[in-house]
Specification:
This protein has 463 residues and is an alpha+beta fold. The protein is 17% helix and 32% strand. The protein is built from seven helices and 24 strands.
């Protein structure tokens, strides 16, 4: 056990040296550990657990928030996986963590031997990336994208791993202020590291807030066996997949959080042509035309992609005025679906009258630009996709079609790819933050409000 603690402390010391800034380093082996292969039977695990549970029951106090005895393992669903010591046993354990205030993921417990041959328990809080699990509706080790938090049998956070497309891209450590770097002792040889520390938090399956730091790196990490090996073969049980489903529902569709509600999505879809027809009632002589883009930010004032306003929303408004006549129409692009199908679905346009917004940006346009926008909104609607073409992407493309370039709408989404590149998408958070940064310019409003009412449909006029 002491050997394992030293290895973990050494790794933590290495990662602390990266904190809060990206830097390059080379890791060279300074210690070699030979661990004998030892098979672990389920009967040995049961015997150890029964003795441990009994001891825990005798020593627990009113201050104790967790006891291993509460696990009530379903031994018939235990799975055996190979690791460098021989094997370990893994099973599902009820409870669900919450990340970014959304219940997501599942929990498992692993029983394994340490380097001295002693049996230990490790509690795994497995939290798939929300976009990954919502699209797939299940988690699998082969392409797992998300985080694995690893606790000891007393529910103390030991650390964890961060995966992207089935490959480890970083580590998680407890947040310890003022910790001094320790000497590196590991078997990783000549590994180039480019890493960045980020502080974060989540609510574990016991409902306790856990503060941690995560280190995103672009390197292949050698598994030192301090944690259960997530790539070994399985036997027994139902799935043979350490990070996947099975054993009571972990990783199945039921563990995927609901797809976020989109502001205004419950409004009925409208006919674009009936809305665009109304501009024909405004005389062309001396007409002025304006385009306004409204953004409801997910977390106002930040570039966070999720917040009190869910994922936020972007809408486009067209106004044509001449003499005493003026027509304004404001539309937003949505998926024409419900539930998980909203991730990728046929598109629809909705009247966004009265919708709350945080920022907006306006442009005076000429007749040609205005006609191009009308034609774009009248065209066949594309397929909605939460990252590839959402409400922000649709509005951005419409403006581009008319020769209007909006501020930068991109933000990073999800975890980095294994090669270190970061997925980006046009989002309300990205566009809203860029508009916020333009505060003070005459065509920018950062005070927010409610979108003015649209004129509504016109069945008989033509542009």
């Amino acid at each position: 056990m002491k050997t394992k603690i030293l290895i973990f402390a050494s790794l933590t010391g290495l990662l602390l040296s990266c904190k809060k800034e990206a830097q390059q380093s080379v890791i060279t082996a300074t210690d070699t550990v030979t661990v004998p292969t030892q098979n672990l039977s389920i009967d040995q695990v049961k015997s150890w657990y029964n003795s441990k549970a009994t001891a825990s029951l005798h020593t627990q106090s009113t201050q104790q928030v967790f006891s291993l005895s509460k696990l009530s393992p379903e031994w018939s669903k235990a799975q055996s996986f190979s690791n460098k010591q021989g094997n370990y046993w893994l099973m599902h354990f009820g409870g669900q963590p919450a990340l970014q205030n959304v219940k997501q993921g599942y929990r498992k417990v692993a029983f394994l031997r340490d380097s001295s041959g002693q049996i230990q328990a490790r509690i795994l809080e497995i939290v798939p990336d929300v976009l990954y699990i919502q699209r797939k509706q299940k988690a699998e080790t082969k392409d797992f994208t998300g985080r694995v938090f690893i606790y000891d049998e007393d529910y103390h956070l030991l650390g964890g791993k961060i995966y992207s497309q089935g490959k480890q891209i970083g580590r998680i450590k407890p947040q310890i202020q003022g910790a001094a770097p320790a000497k590196l002792q590991t078997q990783m040889v000549q590994v180039s590291v480019d890493c960045q520390w980020y502080d974060s938090n989540y609510i574990d399956s016991e409902g306790v807030a856990t503060i941690y730091s995560e280190n995103i790196c672009t390197y292949s990490v050698y598994d030192d066996s301090f944690y259960p090996d997530m790539t070994g073969g399985g036997g027994g049980g139902t799935s043979g997949d350490p990070l996947g489903g099975g054993g009571g529902g972990g990783g199945n569709a039921s563990s995927a959080p609901a797809v976020s509600n989109l502001p205004g999505e419950d409004h009925p879809k409208v006919s674009p042509s009936q809305y665009m027809n109304c501009f024909g009632s405004v005389p062309n002589n001396n007409a002025t035309m304006q385009v306004t883009v409204y953004v409801q930010e997910p977390f106002p004032g930040t570039s966070f992609n999720y917040g009190s306003n869910s994922v936020g929303h972007t809408a486009i408004s067209l106004t044509k005025s001449s003499g005493g006549t003026s027509v304004t129409q404001t539309l937003g692009f949505y998926p024409d679906a419900t539930g998980k199908d909203k991730m990728n679905a046929p598109g629809k346009l909705v009247d966004n009258s009265g919708l709350k917004y945080n920022v907006s940006i306006s442009y005076k346009v000429d007749a040609v630009q205005f006609a191009n926008l009308v034609n774009y909104l009248n065209s066949s609607l594309p397929t909605y996709d939460i990252t590839e073409l959402n409400c922000t992407g649709y509005v951005y493309n419409a403006c581009q079609y008319a020769g209007i370039t909006l501020p930068n709408p991109y933000t990073t989404v999800g975890l980095p790819y294994p090669d270190g590149t970061q997925a980006q998408a046009m989002t309300p958070a990205g566009l809203g933050n860029s508009i916020q940064n333009m505060e003070g310019q005459p065509n920018v409003n950062t005070s927010g409000g409610n979108i003015p009412a649209s004129h509504g449909p016109c069945n008989n006029q033509t542009p």
